[in-house]
Design brief:
The chain has 568 residues and is mainly beta. It contains eight helices and 28 strands. The protein has a single domain, classed as Porin.
Length: 568
């Protein structure tokens, strides 16, 4: 009892005496307009070049000493329409209440679901919207960010995996979806759900924050994809210990985060659960248990090479009922990854789903540019010889670059060129294990998902993406054009259909726009998509025995996105 009273006295003293700059308000991952504006500002030399942007969300109040997280240009006070900033301060600024932006995001798909990096939104045809707002409160080092998200999706019916595919193809289709919780459609009714969203409860002692959070995370340097943590799925409940600004030492700066969280199942099923093949039922029910996830990211910026960031990420997950009581059970990321034997079978007694990556981001401020790369593996090599012999085994990677060109006639305007390549398709390094899709797992049969969506790269298992965009930029305003080639699950195609005319490839062109007007932020995307061999079904447009490269039937999809935010 005396010990509890002593701890309470210490905590009360910290709350009363801790200075204002401990305010740990985050900028949520995927915030339209603002998040990328911070990163662009770094390329232009306008903010601290030791911030890696590989451990997100970021905390601009602490790391940049900004008063308003949602004002990266620090001009809102002079431009806004209202004198009210939605902020109340008491007790010599030790108690702060702040209204968070009101945001409405809307999306429409004309033919079939398209889209990722949209948080709690789901893959759905038709109209969909997500609404979020909330309040931030601070008392000394204690902060509460309550920002729930409500999602409604029309969730109209669409063509899922074709029943006309032969049983052999359906067998391989089941081999994937029996080992990952990735439903094509979230039920057959309109979808409506309230999430905790970007909410958190933290104790922050600059530069470290400890708390409970449901916020989305993004680890690594990628902009369109991340191998281990992205905002494709809804945020999940987790305990977090993280930096809120770079920790500067005699050898350079460090940022990092370690989490322990809970992943939930979707509760939805594949399109056909009664189909059989050679006497065996293809659908295998999954274990109904939540999953524990433990992950870590670390970024290091050597002081001898300004602008260079080196980092690693790692995660392990297993069923909640299998959690032990030892430190190794609770924080397995602090220990070496579980080794495999040379046939790829796990040695530990309990089932685990593990993956890791290393990354580089090179910020070139003088060139207003950045280069980045991330390389990951799902299966730990048995030893160094195995690693050298099969470096490509279960690998995935992301490579990207961005460059800003200043317009000579307009010194505050730029042309931005951005390219990113993501490769999740596996090689044939080990032909015995071609079924080892990224993010699926034969033991943790929900795979690397939360609420039925991927935690990592949103393009999904076995997929590849090439993305190129060119944009005009002036402060928070951008207008751009984006072209992409999205190859859907080539691993499945190479095993199941094998027809070189039948890969499912989406070719898209998009018009992008972001704009600010006083308190308002607007973001919009208009995308036209041509799906070649949709759902991996090659249907020749006509019959001609003298031709091999007969065009297949294509499907067109239109997607529109618009986001509106009001900042206080």
């Amino acid at each position: 009892m005396k010990l509890l009273k002593a701890h309470g006295t210490i905590l009360l003293f910290c709350i009363i005496c801790f200075p204002l700059h401990s305010r740990a308000q985050s900028l949520p991952v995927g915030t339209p307009v603002l998040e990328d504006a911070y990163r662009r500002a770094q390329l232009l030399g306008q903010i601290d070049s030791t911030i890696s942007f590989t451990v997100r969300p970021i905390f601009p109040v602490v790391s940049l000493k900004y008063k308003n997280v949602f004002d990266p240009t620090q001009t809102l006070d002079s431009e806004k329409a209202s004198k009210s900033d939605g902020r109340l301060e008491y007790w010599n600024n030790r108690i702060i209440l702040q209204l968070l932006p009101v945001t409405l995001q809307q999306q429409y798909n004309s033919d079939h679901p398209v889209g990722y990096n949209d948080g709690a939104m789901i893959p759905a045809r038709g109209y969909q919207t997500m609404f979020s707002t909330g309040v931030y409160a601070k008392l000394g080092p204690l902060s509460i960010q309550l920002r729930p998200e409500y999602v409604y999706a029309e969730n109209r019916n669409f063509q899922q995996f074709y029943k006309e595919q032969d049983d052999g193809v359906w067998y391989w289709y089941s081999e994937l979806f029996n080992f990952i919780d990735l439903p094509e459609r979230f039920g057959d009714k309109p979808y409506s759900k309230l999430f905790w969203g970007q909410s958190s409860l933290r104790l922050t002692f600059n530069p470290i924050s400890l708390g409970i959070s449901n916020e989305n995370l993004w680890w690594g340097p990628g902009m369109r994809n991340s191998l281990l943590m992205s905002n494709t799925a809804a945020g999940f409940k987790h305990i977090t210990l993280n930096t809120v600004r770079p920790i500067k030492t005699s050898i350079g700066s460090f940022e990092g985060q370690i989490i322990a969280g809970r992943l939930e199942n979707s509760g939805f099923y594949p399109p056909d659960t009664i189909r059989s093949y050679i006497g065996y039922r293809l659908y295998i029910p999954k274990r109904d248990d939540w999953r524990y996830i433990n992950g870590v990211v670390l970024s290091y910026q050597p002081k001898w090479v300004p602008g260079l960031f080196l980092g690693l990420t790692k995660s392990l997950s297993f069923y909640g009922e299998d959690i032990g009581t030892s430190l190794r059970d609770i924080l397995p990321v602090l220990y070496p990854m579980s080794k495999k034997n040379n046939h790829g079978d796990e040695l530990p007694s309990i089932a685990k789903d593990q993956r890791a990556s290393i990354f580089i981001r090179w910020l070139l401020v003088k060139e207003n540019a950045e280069l980045y790369w991330e390389y990951g593996r799902e299966d730990h090599a048995y030893n160094s010889r195995d690693l050298m012999l099969q470096l490509e085994y279960t690998r995935a990677y992301i490579f990207g670059l961005r460059k800003l060109y200043q317009l000579k006639a307009k010194t505050d305007q730029y042309i931005q060129i951005n390219f990113e390549l993501t490769q999740l398709e596996q090689t044939n390094t080990n032909p015995e294990h071609l079924w080892r899709y990224w993010y699926s797992n034969r033991d943790i049969r929900q795979g690397y998902t939360n609420e039925g969506q991927l935690i990592g790269a949103g393009i999904g298992p076995g997929s590849n993406l090439q993305s190129l965009s060119i944009s005009w930029i002036k402060s928070l305003k951008t207008i751009g054009l984006q072209v992409e080639r999205f190859v859907h699950n080539n691993d499945f195609h190479n095993i199941a259909t094998k027809d070189i005319r039948g890969n499912w490839v989406d070719l898209s062109i998009s018009l992008l726009g972001e704009w600010n007007y006083k308190n308002f932020l607007f973001s919009a995307k208009i995308e036209c998509i041509k799906s070649l061999n949709y759902e991996d079904l090659y249907q020749p447009a006509f019959e001609d025995p003298n031709q091999f490269w007969i065009p297949g039937k294509d499907i067109f999809n239109f997607q529109g996105q618009i986001s509106t935010s009001y900042r206080f």
